[in-house]
Amino acid sequence: MLRSLRFRLPALFLAGIVLSGLITAVIALRLFQNYTQHRLVSELRRDAVGLTELYQAQADNQNGAPPRFAAPRLEKATGARLYYVGLSTCPDSKQTCGLRPLPISYLPDWQSDRQVTFEFTPPSTDRTFVAVANPLRLSGGRKHVQFGDIVVAKPKTELNETLITLLDRLGIAFLGGIAIAGLLGWYLSRRITRPVLALSKAADEIARGRYDVELPPVRSGDEIGHLADRFRDMAERLSVAEQQERNFLMTVSHELKTPLTAIRGHVDALREGLADDPSLREASLDVIASEGARLERLVGDVLDLAKLEAHRFTVLHEEVDMERLCDLAYTTFGEEARRRGIEYRRSFEAAPTIVSDGDRVLQIISNLLTNAFRWTPDGGRVDLELAAENGTVSVAIDDTGPGISPQERERIFRPFWSRDDSGTGLGLAIARELAVALGGRIELDSSPGAGSRFELVLPARTAP
Q: How many helices (H) and strands (E) does the chain have?
């Protein structure tokens, strides 16, 4: 349960929300704390300036007589504590005319003639206050002389109380956000994991050898939808590959069994002396040699395809006379064309010499001619053309066979695939792989009922 994607996705989603929420809360608290402290200091400075001006105005109105503050009322109005530090302005030097006295030790630089912000713990209390001291100047002759500082202070716990209130509100909002995020994460995880779980179950079925699994349609155009489409294609290809493998095993077993049966029959005849006549013995040996060569070609095709697909194929670089090579391939199929009444023509418009692997080029052309003669009916036509232009050499084979539909154009180059389930289906696959290994390609132009044209295109590289 805990390891399932359905649990881990919302868990990770929720963990991300919680982490981002905590970071946001810490930053918000820090900013709010700075803001409230700055606001508190601003209020204290404003109150300190106002109270100082009020005190000085009372002194001026009383012609130098020491003013007396109604401190309790002012403290109640401002919500702050009022202190005085400095020289006494009252007849009794021990009095501060209604203000709370504050020892000079709490504000050593009270004579700096500037407003000072500081924190202190007043006598007879254990609370810390934030305070602003504003210079107090009274008339002394023609000059205003600084006698002390009026201090306006508020408990620092007010900031903490504000922060606690904010924390309460943030906690409620945070819990609500987590609940909403959890529900959203659970909903999204189900939306995301449903097709993934379907793909996982389909993968289990494919692992058991069942390729006909059906996947639920995924309408989303994101990575999950792309994965579902590619998985569906993979399952179809595996099904086709399995069918091709079965066909190949059946075909290869048949292809191997036919020449082996013929070879065994003639060997038994020679052993038992049934072919005493020299001509019969020679005929039996010819059949054995022919069927042995057929087996060798079949095994060679399978090995060539395996080497090509594993990229363990060695390509020789030698001068190749393309006219001579095409003429050799053309001659090889001359007897079959005469026997079946096929109109067999050649057209060599150039005589190029390229640097390539001559044996492999001949193998490609021979495979294409074999395919053309296989599908061309008796009395049809097969053409072999050689041309060179624009830095390339092309060898084209035209036939008058049944043609190839657009749906089959790619399949015919797949290994072990045959349109009529006969043969090994390796000829065209090997031809295309060899063409790519030689730096070329095979092009196909065909339509049903109009024959086919296979064209081998190679780079016209010359010898250095």
A: 9, 12
Taken in order 177, 180, 186, 188, is the CA torsion positive or negative? negative
Per-residue pLDDT tens digits for 127-170: 888 889 988 877 654 456 677 888 888 888 776 676 777 677 77
As a whole number, mean pLDDT of residues 365-392 equals 92
Hey, where are the domains in the chain? 5-161, 223-309, 318-459
CB atoms under 10 Å from CB of 377, counted, come to 12
CATH number of 5-161: 3.30.450
Nearest Cα to 111, choosing from 152, 146, 151?
Answer: 146
The CATH number corresponding to 223-309 among 3.20.20.80, 3.40.50.720, 1.10.287.130, 2.60.120.260 equals 1.10.287.130
CATH number 3.20.20.140 is the correct assignment for the domain at 318-459: no
Judge whether 409 and 447 are in contact, CB under 8 Å: no
Reading across the β-sheet that carries 343-348, which strands appear in turn? 343-348, 381-389, 392-399, 452-459, 441-446
pLDDT in tens, 160-176: 676 777 677 777 777 77
DSSP secondary structure of 397-415: EEE-SS---GGGTTGGGST
Rounded to an integer, what distance in angstroms lies between the CA atom of residue 253 and that of residue 261? 12
- Mean pLDDT, residues 54-73 taken together: 67
pTM of the model: 0.47
